[in-house]
């Protein structure tokens, strides 16, 4: 059994030397917070430019991250945080966090290239007694099937004896990285109860919220399940919206009335589900149980519903164009909103990207506008000028107070498709726009 007393003392005295592999939007903030708490932190990343930027005291993270740039400059200045491209700089590390990407491929299979490379490189340099904690979101069972064997193989050491393992999935959202790290509870999944106890002591230096002790599989399951849960709930809202649309009801009215019933909380239907977590984590969860030959139904079905929403936007567009005897192929279409989330510049897995792909594949002339995405920051009116439809794909504030009369004047054909239900259908009608929205039957206007 690993002797954890020494590690416990080092953590208590804040003398434990910390390593963080992967200095992205998760690894870098956690490295800065731990350095600021008093630990000496060595961050390792494969990108030399990113390492150099950090060692110059500058944050390479895009987008607004309150407090991160100042925090990073301070800990680098004090020599508490050093970045490197070499895992050799982790030979003295007592605790190493792994924060690398864990994407899925087209067949929804996890791509662990970065994770495996980190485990192999780390294994070659770790010292006896090191604690390795994976913070990346991984499929249940990955610690057993991938992390443990790779580190044992590359280090020649025995886990639980010469090194310890933990899983502590991150719960951060772009734009609130430091706040989330401090304020969101975390599961400290240890290989043994003694390890999870040490993890709590370690994370208490930066986390003010609950730190829940558990084991490896529970930590892996919790993170993937919490995002699968959200995906299924969004899919329910989307399917209910399509039901409302088909029978002539308004989804927003039905949603409000359903949510008056105790214990109900129908989310918002929309043009689709994007981002770096929700579209991926349900597949990580499913992959984790694939070898158990469990037939999952709800989780894959929810993914299919959410992935189909851009096609429903296409259906609304075709119906609206037919009303004006317009052929899609001869039309010019404006997409308003390209980020995956309102008030964000993050475009990962954006439903707008899917819609753009569909329209482009049909040789439709498409214009795009998004106040937060640099390449699409032209004005709304420039974008929609002489277009045959304007499609709202993201609930940016800029689209919630549109001058509908001016919109109508700039469009060649007065069609407004509301993928996030941010425009009042009556006001659209008063502005003589043909309004269609997800979960709304425009024939009712
Ligand atoms: N969406 C809907 N309807 C909804 C809510 C979201 O269509 O009712 C869409 C959004 O437009 C977006 C996608 O789903 O395209 C994801 O939105 P999100 O609000 O879930 O935001 P994310 O992707 O940043 O999710 C993160 C997750 N946090 C972490 O992984 C740490 C998720 O677990 C959180 O629940 C979510 O933030 C949150 O609550 O803000």
Could you describe the 3D structure shown?
- α6 links the parallel β5 and β6.
- α9 (216-247) crosses α12.
- The mean pLDDT is 96.
- By secondary structure, the protein is of the alpha/beta class.
- The strands form two sheets. It has an eight-stranded mixed β-sheet, sandwiched between helices. A five-stranded parallel β-sheet has the order 10-9-11-12-13.
- Helices cover 42% and strands 13% of the residues.
- Residues 171-173, 226-227, 230, 234, 237, 267-268, 270, 273-275, 277-278, 340-341 line the site of ligand SAJ.
Terminal Cα separation, in Å? 72 Å
Which percent range describes the beta-strand content? 5-15%
The profile of the biggest β sheet is: 8 strands, mixed
Rg, alpha carbons: 25 Å
Quantity of strands, as a count: 13
Strand order of the largest sheet: 3-2-1-4-5-6-7-8
Proportion of residues in helical segments: 40-55%
Task: Give average pLDDT, whole number.
Answer: 96
Structural class: alpha/beta
Low-pLDDT segments, ≥5 res: none
Distinct small molecules: ligand SAJ
Number of helices: 17
Bulk shape: elongated
What is the string of helix and strand elements? HEHEHHEEHEHEHEHEHHHHHEHEHEHEHE
Describe the structure using short key phrases:
alpha/beta, binds ligand SAJ, five-stranded parallel sheet, 445 residues, single chain, 17 helices
Brief overview:
The chain has helices spanning 5-12, 27-36, 48-55, 68-77, 113-125, 142-155, 177-183, 193-203, 216-247, 251-258, 281-290, 298-307, 309-323, 351-361, 380-384, 404-410, 425-430, and strands at 17-21, 40-44, 81-84, 95-98, 130-134, 163-167, 186-190, 211-215, 332-336, 365-369, 389-392, 415-418, 434-437.
């Amino acid at each position: 059994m690993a002797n954890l007393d020494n590690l416990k003392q080092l953590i208590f005295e804040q003398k434990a030397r910390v390593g963080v592999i992967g200095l992205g939007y998760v690894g870098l903030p956690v490295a800065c917070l731990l350095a600021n708490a008093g630990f000496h932190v060595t961050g390792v990343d494969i990108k030399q430019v990113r390492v150099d930027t950090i060692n110059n005291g500058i944050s390479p993270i895009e987008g607004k991250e309150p407090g991160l740039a100042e925090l990073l400059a301070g800990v680098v200045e004090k020599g508490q945080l050093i970045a490197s491209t070499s895992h050799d700089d982790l030979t003295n590390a007592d605790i190493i966090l792994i924060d690398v990407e864990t994407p899925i491929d087209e067949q929804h299979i996890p791509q662990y290239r970065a994770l495996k490379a980190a485990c192999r490189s780390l294994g070659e340099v770790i010292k006896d007694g090191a604690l390795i904690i994976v913070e990346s979101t991984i499929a249940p069972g990955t610690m057993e099937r991938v992390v443990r064997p790779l580190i044992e193989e590359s280090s020649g050491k025995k886990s639980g004896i010469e090194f310890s393992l933990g899983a502590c999935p991150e719960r951060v959202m772009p734009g609130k990285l430091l706040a989330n790290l401090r304020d969101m509870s975390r599961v400290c999944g240890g290989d043994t109860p003694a390890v999870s106890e040490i993890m709590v002591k370690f994370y208490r230096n930066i986390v003010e919220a609950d730190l829940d002790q558990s084991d490896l599989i529970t930590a892996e399951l919790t993170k993937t399940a919490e995002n699968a849960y959200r995906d299924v709930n969004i899919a329910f809202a989307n399917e209910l919206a399509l039901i409302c649309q088909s029978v002539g009801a308004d989804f927003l009215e039905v949603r409000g009335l359903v949510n008056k019933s105790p214990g109900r909380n129908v989310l918002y239907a929309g043009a689709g589900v994007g981002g770096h977590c929700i579209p991926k984590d349900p597949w990580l969860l499913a992959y984790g149980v694939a070898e158990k030959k469990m037939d999952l139904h709800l989780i894959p079905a929810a993914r299919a519903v959410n992935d189909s929403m851009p096609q429903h936007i296409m259906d609304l567009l075709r119906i609206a164009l037919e009303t004006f005897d317009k052929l899609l192929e001869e039309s010019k279409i404006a997409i308003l909103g390209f980020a995956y989330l309102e008030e964000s510049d993050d475009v990962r897995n954006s439903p707008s990207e899917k819609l753009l792909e569909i329209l482009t594949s049909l040789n439709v002339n498409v214009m795009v506008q998004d106040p937060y995405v640099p390449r699409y920051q032209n004005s709304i009116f420039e974008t929609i000028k002489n277009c045959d439809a304007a499609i709202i794909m993201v609930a940016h504030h800029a689209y919630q107070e549109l001058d509908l009369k001016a919109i109508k004047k700039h469009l060649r054909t007065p069609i407004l498709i509301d993928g996030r239900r941010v425009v009042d259908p009556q006001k659209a009608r008063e502005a003589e726009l043909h309004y269609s929205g997800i979960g709304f039957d425009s024939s009712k206007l």
